[in-house]
Amino acid sequence: MMKPFSRSSKRGGVRPSPTFYVVVLSMFLWALIFSLHCSTSLQSGDAIKPPAIFSFRFGRPDQCAGRYVYMYDLPPRFNTDLARDCRRLSASTDMCKHVANDHFSAGFDAAMNQDNSDLTVRDALPQDMADWLARPPEWRAMGGRDHFMLVGRCTWDFLRGPDGGWGNALMTYPAIRNMTVLSVKASPWHGNDFAVPFPSHFHPSSDAEVIAWQHRMRRLERQRLWCFAGYSQPSSKRTVRAQIMEQCGRSRRYAILGEAAASATTTLGNYWPGHAMRLLESAEFCLQPRGDGFTRKSTFDAILAGCIPVFFHPVSVYLQYMWHLPREYRSYSVFIPRDDLVGQNLSIEEVLRKIPSEKVVRMREEVIRLIPTVMYRDAAAKRMQFKDAFDVAIERVIDRVAKRRRAVAEGREYHDSVDGDYS
Fold first, then answer.
1. Which of 7-11, 97-101, 176-180, 313-317 shows the lowest mean pLDDT across its residues?
2. What pairing do the DSSP bridges indicate for beta strands 254-257 and 224-229?
3. Mutual orientation of helices 21-29 and 106-113 as an angle, nearest 10°?
4. Which residues pair with 309 in a beta bridge?
5. Is the C-alpha dihedral spanning 336, 337, 343, 344 positive or negative?
6. What's this model's pTM, rounded to 2 decimal places?
7. Per-residue pLDDT tens for 310-359?
8. Got the DSSP string for 198-241?
9. Looking at residue 286, what is its pLDDT?
10. Rounded Cα gap, residues 255 and 203, in angstroms
11. Which terminus in the chain has less CB density within 10 A, N or C?
């Protein structure tokens, strides 16, 4: 039976740790396969019908018309059977306690098979999933254009080409390319994937908690001009990180966190969540160079801490998180082009010190305003007025599906623009 979207009320979930936040998110949200329909009926034919603006249930207007979500009951080989092999994910830590939700764990499968040199084996379950999805009549109605899934890993883990390389080929299959895919790191060039914020360590259960957190971020005395929570990358000195480390050594208004800070008097310890948040809360600006990909989890920790993020590549945030962050990036962040920093030895501190204090206040207030949209509230929370990252993503997915449905009904193909608008 189809139901309006709602959150689970189950308590006692394990909060994500800094080491395993991607795995836990994958178990919580990862690869849920949804189908959005315009009525409460599960019957679906091949004809495509535009959604009704109003419908009636029990003689009253149905405010959820066109916004119902149906979740497939997947065969156990896509979830339960994978969970039985949970100990294969880590040799040093028992991850089985984190495997609580039996949704299609695409990334879980990818992690367990990444070292397998046989690409056929690595792609077996993703191909099976794509084939299984394309069979039901609900899929054939729009060829999957009204379906979406969430993946807790980055898009690149599912875009491996036929010649080998990293990850599996899940997102290269035509059926999956028709869907809307949400991931913690998206590709601006792929076309059907959209980024959602990394999970933080703050999961409020009421509006009062959110408001209190925002007030605390406003009242904090920020003793440092800038900070960086991360490690050096010794492979090259001509990188943003190398410049950050070098310039940190010449500044008295900075703080760093990580291995490179071991000999610094301002070190606050390893990247334990409490240490990291205290560092980010102590600074006006938080530097966000590229990590393993274009985006780092620290970006969203910084926003949560009310710290103005500083980026060095537009793909880090501006071309990925259009659903959750303002299009006018100057309102909440600072952008320093990589080439200016690495090629021209631009002083980070000089750039930041030149920003007028009144503008810094406005930017910080915008960052604090954004906190609800980049956090994930407690799953048991009810009747909260703030929309969190999950709410924002689901609303935009439903909106996108409705527009795709209209486009198909009009005999045309639907396209997203690069800035997240629709056409």
1. 7-11
2. parallel
3. 140
4. 286
5. negative
6. 0.80
7. 999 999 999 999 999 999 999 999 999 998 898 887 899 999 999 999 99
8. PP-S---SSHHHHHHHHHHHHH----EEEEEES---TT-SSSHH
9. 95
10. 27
11. N
Tokens found for residue 43: 């019957």
**CA pseudo-torsion sign 168, 174, 175, 179:** positive
Q: How far is CA 314 from the centre of its chain?
A: 16
Instruction: Report helix angle 124-133 to 106-113, nearest 10.
Output: 160
d(CA 254, CA 268): 12
What is d(CA 127, CA 119) in angstroms, rounded to the nearest whole number? 11
Let me know: does 377 contact 203? Beta carbons within 8 Å. yes
CA-based end-to-end distance of the chain? 32
Residue 385 has pLDDT above 50, yes or no: yes
Q: How far apart (Å, rounded) are the C-alpha atoms in residues 338 and 333? A: 15
Dist CA 315 CA 245 (whole Å): 22
Cβ 144 vs Cβ 134: under 8 Å: yes
Q: Cα(408)–Cα(23) distance, rounded to whole angstroms?
A: 36
Q: Where do we find the tokens 């991607």?
A: 22
List, in sequence order, every residue forming a beta bridge with 68; answer none if it has no partner: 4, 37
List, in order, residues 6 or more apart from 331 with CB less than 8 Å away.
362, 363, 366
Beta-sheet pairing, 33-37 with 147-151:
antiparallel
Q: How far apart are CA 192 and CA 186, in angstroms?
A: 9
Tens digits of per-residue pLDDT, 84-103?
A: 877 777 766 677 776 665 66
CA-derived radius of gyration, the chain? 23
CA distances from 297 to 18, 77, 303 (A): 9, 31, 10
